[in-house]
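2024-03-11 09:14:02 DEBUG pipeline.ingest accepted 1 chain
2024-03-11 09:14:02 DEBUG pipeline.ingest length=139
2024-03-11 09:14:03 DEBUG pipeline.predict start
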Amino acid sequence: MRQSIARTIGTEMTRLKRRDCERGASIVSFVVLAPAFVLMILVLAQVMIAGHVRHVASLAAATGVAEAATWDGSAASGHQRADAQLAGASGWVLSPIVSSSRNATTATVTVEADAFRILPFGDWHIEVQRTAPVEVINP
């Protein structure tokens, strides 16, 4: 009986010593892992914002080229349509630039924009170009 009590006390003392030795380890782990976790979340948010800006620019370019490619359309009308589409865009799209051209066979609209930056690094410039054949009416 004495031996089992001594063994139990000895085991308990060893466990307490081990616990004292690891005291504060969770704080150190938190201090090391928390900034990495926050950075990972910010990078994910920045990529999502860039994807949103790419979709908005793609929609504006597609709308503009659809207008410019009509049989009575022009490069100017495609430019205006893309600008109108970007005017209603969210605040994530910064400094959009629209350029358009049209010749006898094709119409092209290019939209360039910068994505809102929440991180101080990285190039978040977006450029989307859409081209479509011009409608021709054959009598």
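2024-03-11 09:14:41 DEBUG pipeline.report The chain has a mean pLDDT of 87.
2024-03-11 09:14:41 DEBUG pipeline.predict end
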